[in-house]
Design a protein that fits this description.
The protein is of the alpha/beta class. The chain contains 22 helices and ten strands.
Length: 612
């Protein structure tokens, strides 16, 4: 199992998590429900008192029955009935009260767990939306891995709240109270019980150190499996078209086999240590029985036959956390691992999207790049000393082979990323000083592949302008040549957008841009997935909206490039040519090669002869 990638992804998490760090990070999510904590603590105290009743009753009952049997004059049924009645009333009453306390304790504790889980989910969503694009493209932050970190983090952290306030706290409160009662009854017996506990926790600490690496590897394995399944879902068409189902199945089988080995080895160690701890607990019980029996035999003051069962039952309450800690310990250690990834997202302050305060009344759209360098988080430098001027109200085309850096320029202009060197100005103001949200409110972006949300066609179009009316949606759909196709659907604009074809979904994305009506437009292969007639229709619509706006277009369609007022040719992250399309073509070089190759690929000569 490859855990290096996982560890690199976890590097942003801010280091290793300890129990105290975990509780400190959870505390802000728990404090808003302090009244639930107060109720839980009161119920814990009552429940702990109830847990000692059996031992006290058994102690008194055994001594009372023993005295009754040995009294002069023989056995009295009347006294026996009174003793049994008192015992029954106390024990049954204790069970009724205990049932009510347990119900309330678990209900309020579960309520707190659910509320904390909700708040954790909302907080991580808010933080994810505030992070810049570089976070999501960093190694170790792939979609499947992030989803695993979030899902498992929320689950383990909410379980930690449940374990601490519903499981551990009542158990240890009961244990401390039981230990105090043992010391009050007999110091020597109390010391024996007390000596077992630190030995047990010493073994537990050794277990934690030995199993830490295995748990971390398992978490990395869960992320790898989750990412692998997501890749299969996203690539199912390609997998089936190449008949690679068996290869993908074998790849998943290898991941699962590695995960299985890790889990079995970890569980093997866990069960070995748990067996040792159970053995220590049983030694404590045996020692308590032997010591109390000895003290009774020597007629030690305050010791009686009832005290034997009394101390054994109290020691059971002392050792109850030890028995329960087998499970809780595993959950807490899982929480330590998962909390690193989860709080790594919440504490990724250096990844929060930066914004300025500049919000002008008018955005003209005059961009100027000066000596810009940009390197992605994986170490790939995409731009080298790029300088260009994109005038307001003009159409600028970015041309180049795949990987030349064209889309990177658009990403920088939209503040998805920030350059490592150089400066980008918009309307004479450094782009870093602009309010990011204000900037994007004035930018329309159409990509080669646009995301369609789970919702109706109208909801997806209105994503470009939430306050738009239905008439605005219809107008935008007409501009994107989508209206007629939508009206042929049984549900019309209420139809799920996910039911549309790829070309129709592209028109939805273009309709979003029309309904937004921004002064700046970025077009990155906007008609790549459309047929020839649709491309012509969309081109006509885009040509109409271009007027008076700043337009940056990336396209391999020479029909769109040639309409630009100016173009920049990029090659391996550098600007190698610039000027008007005609002037740059006459210069020769890369643009002429691309233009001529496009013309040849379209069989321009045959098309011309056919149309003649």
């Amino acid at each position: 199992m490859k855990t290096d990638t996982f560890r690199e992804g976890q590097g942003a998490a801010g280091g290793r998590m300890t129990i105290w760090n975990l509780l400190r990070n959870i505390l802000p999510f728990v404090l808003p429900y302090r009244w639930l904590i107060g109720v839980t603590l009161v119920l814990t105290l009552v429940g702990s008192l109830m847990a000692q009743v059996n031992a006290v009753v058994l102690d008194r009952a055994v001594d009372a029955i023993n005295a009754l049997i040995q009294q002069p004059g023989g056995f009295s049924w009347g006294s026996a009935v009174r003793i049994l009645t008192v015992i029954s009333v106390i024990l049954l009453g204790k069970e009724v009260i205990g049932a009510l306390v347990t119900f309330c304790q678990r209900y309020y504790g579960e309520r707190m767990r659910i509320l904390v889980s909700r708040d954790l989910s909302l907080r991580v969503v808010e933080r994810m939306l505030s992070l810049r694009m570089a976070f999501f493209t960093a190694e170790g932050n792939e979609t499947g891995k992030l989803q695993s970190r979030i899902d498992r983090g929320i689950m383990s952290l909410s379980n930690t709240v449940n374990n601490f306030f519903i499981e551990i706290l009542p158990l240890f409160t009961s244990a401390v109270l039981a230990l105090a009662l043992m010391f009050m009854a007999n110091v020597y017996v109390g010391l024996v019980a007390l000596c077992i506990v630190p030995i047990y926790f010493w073994v537990t600490s050794i277990q934690a150190d030995r199993m830490k690496g295995g748990r971390r590897s398992i978490f990395g394995g869960h992320q790898a499996v989750s990412q692998g399944i997501l890749n299969i879902i996203e690539s199912i068409t390609v997998i089936k078209s190449f008949n690679r189902e068996q290869i993908e199945a074998q790849r998943q089988a290898a991941l699962q086999a590695s995960m299985t080995d890790l889990q079995l080895n970890t569980r093997k160690q866990s069960y070995m240590f748990n067996g040792l701890k159970s053995f220590l607990e049983q030694i404590g019980t045996v020692l308590i029985i032997i010591l109390t029996a000895y003290l009774v035999l020597i007629d030690y003051p305050g010791m009686s036959i009832g005290k034997i069962m009394y101390h054994v039952m109290l020691f059971a309450n002392v050792s109850a956390p030890i028995r329960q800690l087998h499970r809780i310990y595993d959950d807490m250690n899982d929480a330590l691992i998962y909390a690193e990834g989860f709080f790594g997202i919440l504490h990724a302050d250096d990844q929060v999207e930066e914004t300025g305060k500049y919000r002008p009344a008018e955005v003209r759209g005059d961009f100027e790049l000066s000596g810009v360098d940009f390197t992605y988080s994986n170490g790939t430098q995409a731009l080298f000393d790029v300088s260009m001027h994109i005038p307001a109200g003009k159409i600028t085309a970015l041309v180049g082979l795949s990987g030349a850096g064209k889309s990177t320029v658009v990403n920088l202009l939209d503040k998805f990323y920030h350059p490592q060197r150089g400066q980008i100005r918009l309307d004479g103001v450094d782009l870093a000083d602009w309010d990011t949200q204000w900037l994007r409110d004035h930018v329309g972006l159409v990509l080669q592949k646009n995301h369609i949300f789970d919702g109706t066609i109208e909801e997806n179009i209105k994503y470009g302008c939430p306050e738009a009316t239905h008439d605005d949606v219809v107008r935008a759909a007409r501009q994107a040549y989508l209206y007629d196709q939508v009206m042929q659907l049984p549900g019309g604009f209420a139809t799920s957008a996910l039911q549309l074809s790829g070309g129709q979904q592209q028109r939805v994305a273009i309709a979003r841009m029309f309904i937004k009506n921004p002064p700046i437009i970025f077009l990155d292969e906007p008609t790549a997935s459309l047929d020839a007639i649709a491309t012509e229709q969309i081109k006509a619509s885009i040509d109409a909206i271009k007027a008076g706006r700043t337009v940056i277009i990336i396209s391999h369609n020479i029909g769109q490039i040639i309409d630009a007022d100016q173009l920049y040719v990029l090659q391996q992250g550098r600007v190698v040519q610039s000027g008007t399309p005609t002037d740059v073509y006459r210069q020769g070089g890369l643009y002429k090669d691309i233009f001529d190759a496009s013309a040849r690929s379209m069989n321009v000569d045959k098309i011309a002869s056919t149309m003649a």
